[in-house]
Amino acid sequence: VHAYVERKALAHSLNDTKTAVQQLHRLASAIVVVIIIVVSLLVMGVATIKVVFVVTSQLLIVGFMFQNTCKTIFESIIFVFVMHPFDVGDRCVIDGVQMIVEEMNILTTVFLRYDMEKIYYPNSVLLTKPISNFRRSPDMGDTVDFTIDVSTPVEDINALKKAIQLYIDSKPKHWSPKHTLIFKEIENMDKMKLVLCVQHTINHQNYGEKSSRRSELVFELKKIFEALGIKYHLLPQEVHLITNQLNNVMPNANARIPT
Q1: Parts of the chain belonging to CATH 3.30.70.100
Q2: What's the CA gap between 209 and 215, in Å, rounded?
């Protein structure tokens, strides 16, 4: 299934690249045709240098009027063919939003958001933005934050480390042996915050598989906590009860209501 998805993404990428090249070819062909016509008129003596100068001046004026359009086209070409930060099917993060590249053109790129909403970005705008590409990233890391009671014995914490090590070693296809259990801080003198840092054997291009592996890890941590009796207990809280005289709050039920 994974190979099929990769081949499908590659086919879409090649198709969109071919489309972009064809669009660039049409643009370049139009420019070349104009140059050939001008040179041909000069060679055949149909147009004098003075006429060509006048026509060129008019073209420069038109170019000045559409300089922003020309600048946008140039920047888009640089982005698509020189920078080329992604291909069709790549999972990217832009402006903090995770999206999949759906379609690439000379001027725009179409993204598909997690809720299947299509988002169109001008390539000249993407040129100025940092882009995170999951597919081109190496094996990526993940973290699980949790809190335990500050009174948890050191022996139980050591047993927790060993149990985590055993689980990760038992899943070599899912997790790299490298992992770290970090003690972040003690808060309010009653709880200790920890974070487990692990490394997948994949990047986050296949986000569903990544999430599934993380869910299994969290569930395994739950079973380890239950087996070792590691819990978190809230500190006793003082509760002050205030008794109000009902007669002072509510009117006398037997009182006559004035008419």
Answers
A1: 141-228
A2: 10
CATH number of 2-133: 2.30.30.60
* Strand duo 91-94 + 97-104: pairing: antiparallel
Which residue bears the tokens 């890890």? 217
The three-state (H, E, C) secondary structure of 129-171, written as one string: CCCEECCCCCCCEEEEEEEEECCCCHHHHHHHHHHHHHHHHCC
pLDDT at residue 52 in the model: 66
3-state SS assignment for residue 86: coil
Higher pLDDT, 226 or 9: 226
Identify the pLDDT of residue 4. 52
**Helix (H) / strand (E) containing 211:** helix 207-228
- What's the CA gap between 26 and 107, in Å, rounded? 14
- CATH class held by domain 141-228: alpha beta
Q: How far are the Cα atoms of 24, 56, 159, 180 from residue 162, in angstroms, in the given order? A: 59, 78, 5, 12
